[in-house]
Design a protein that fits this description.
278 residues; alpha/beta; Protocatechuate 4,5-dioxygenase, Chain B; binds fe (ii) ion
């Protein structure tokens, strides 16, 4: 049977792609951030996942503000990168795990999550940046399943709804027959706001609390409304919903393997959190 072997949540700031393109690994601004991934690389070599199920948010390639589903899942055989104009190269094409994606879709439907099912799906920096940070310069051997959350346009799903979505995905993964080793990822955040009077807003305290409670106290997030999250984390800080869904997709008891924070990365609090089943 398939098993969730770990969770890796990470920021997906688009300017990181520019730094990768410019090979700014030793640049004084970027070096601490890139160095923060060395322990992640070692951990991932040990984990050796065969599938990555990633909770993320599309930034306008597949859905725009006129038609924006709350939840969508990719069931495509492959995922191509579409450059958004942020100097992101088409690093690679990712192979989809169609069978697992359809199984997750079926289980979500039974649990009354009405997903938009995408047989074609482009990927942006919310996928490519974390992938390149975690597996730099290589084409991963694992297969990929993207799950898209609306963290962009109100009404966004509540934190507790995202937790429930994740829990159904976890049950679906662990009821999937083939013996896959599944790494769950959540990308984006944590706190940041790109527009208006609060542009540049970062809440280090809230970010730390998020990582603390994601380890084994996901219930902590249930008290927050979407407006609360915007107030605390900024309007784009709603991407923490991807982190919450990813944690929901893990076993109940997890242990922290690694966390790292670099503030700021562009206008965003850069964060990494790695968990394993305990
Ligand atoms: Fe984003």
């Amino acid at each position: 049977m398939a098993k969730v072997i770990g969770m890796l949540n990470v920021t997906h700031v688009p300017s990181i792609a520019g730094a990768i393109q410019g090979k700014k690994y030793d640049d004084p601004y970027w070096k601490p951030w890139f160095d923060g991934f060395h322990p992640v690389h070692d951990w991932l070599k040990t984990l050796n996942p065969t599938v990555v199920v990633m909770f993320h948010n599309d930034h306008g390639l597949n859905f725009f503000l006129d038609k924006l589903p709350t939840f969508a899942i990719g069931v495509a055989p492959k995922y191509d990168v579409a450059d958004e104009g942020w100097n992101i190269n088409p690093f690679r094409t990712f192979a989809g795990h169609e069978e697992l994606a359809w199984h997750i879709r079926e289980e979500l439907h039974k649990a009354e999550f009405d997903m938009v099912v995408c047989q074609e799906y482009l990927i942006d920096h919310s996928v490519t940046v974390p992938m390149e940070l975690c597996w730099p310069g290589v084409t991963p051997s694992f297969k990929f399943v993207p799950i898209n959350l609306n963290t962009i346009l109100f009404p966004v799903p509540t934190a507790s709804r995202c937790e429930k979505l994740g829990k159904v995905v976890h049950a679906a993964i662990e009821s999937f027959g083939p013996n896959e080793r599944v790494l769950v990822m959540g990308t984006g955040g944590l706190s940041h706001q790109l527009e208006g009077k609060r542009a540049g807003h970062i809440n280090k305290k809230f970010d730390k609390e998020c990582s603390d409670h994601l380890v084994n106290d996901i219930e902590w997030f249930r008290k927050f409304t979407s407006e609360d999250i915007v107030e605390l984390a900024g309007s784009q800080g709603l991407e923490v919903l991807n982190w919450i869904a990813a944690r929901g997709a893990c076993p109940a008891k997890m242990k922290e393997i690694y966390r790292f924070t670099k503030i700021p990365i562009s206008n965003t609090a850069g964060n990494i959190l790695c968990l394993e089943p305990s």
